[in-house]
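Handout, page 2. Input:
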Amino acid sequence: MWNRLARLFTIKTRFEAFAIIYALALGTTSRGMDYLEQYPGLPGVLLFLACTVAVFMAGGKILDAVRPPAVRLVRPGPFRAPPIRQTVVD
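Output:
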């Protein structure tokens, strides 16, 4: 029962991740506008930028968590190019 409920709150696709990041960005800009009104000047701007940077960092972590692991191709040995044959013409 709890597993089924927990599965609803699991981010499975990149689309879901982008939707969540978009929602976070909307809330952040709203809070940032409040900061600009409450703290006019440089302090408000710095708080607004701190909010947006937090969303960028969280968005990067969310996207990294959703991306499937990269497949690495491993060759059995070092790659060696075929020898170059030179013909000497006199």
